[in-house]
Design goal:
mainly beta; Immunoglobulin-like; four-stranded antiparallel sheet; three-stranded antiparallel sheet; 9 strands; about 0% helix
Length: about 90
């Protein structure tokens, strides 16, 4: 098992809230608390990659009264022998 952390930061007034999604479904845990509270919002999600079920499309969504922004990435899981594992 390998752990990875992905961070997302958003600026705005009022301060945006940040939510994480995997394949369109919200991730509630393990989202870590911000390390350095400030006027911006930051959020980190910790992924414990166990296998092909962890592969997929991840989204960080920041939202406030003025609007929203999102950042997307795709996690590809590769086995030790180099074989690409996919949940799809």
């Amino acid at each position: 098992m390998e752990n990875s952390q992905v961070s997302c930061e958003a600026l705005g007034s009022p301060r945006p809230s940040i939510r994480w999604f995997k394949d369109g479904r919200e991730i509630l845990e393990p989202v870590l608390p911000p390390r350095h509270p400030s006027s911006s919002s930051s959020s980190t999600v910790e992924l414990s990659v166990l296998g092909s079920a962890d592969a997929g499309d991840y989204t960080c969504l920041a939202r406030n009264a003025a609007g929203f922004g999102e950042q997307n990435f795709t996690l590809i899981v590769v086995a030790e022998d180099g074989q690409v594992l996919s949940a799809r």
